[in-house]
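Here is a typical protein record:
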Amino acid sequence: MDARFKIAHREAKIGVGLAIAHFLWWFGFAYGLGSRPVEEYTYILGFPDWFFYSSIVGFVLIALTIVVIARFFLTEVSFEEEEERE
């Protein structure tokens, strides 16, 4: 098997893991804190706490995580076919 495919499969798994982690973060805060009665909401910067943590903080954290992973864990791979050396 071409080494590029192993790299691509590993990086695809990382991407799926990030997507699942982001969804779990969003879902946990949006439905965990958001399921309370409106009268019990607390507000951060004018947003309900559940929205602030699920959408704003979640986006910033996942964006920073993607930058770190792209910089340190993903590998640049050439799309050109490598010629076999004789």
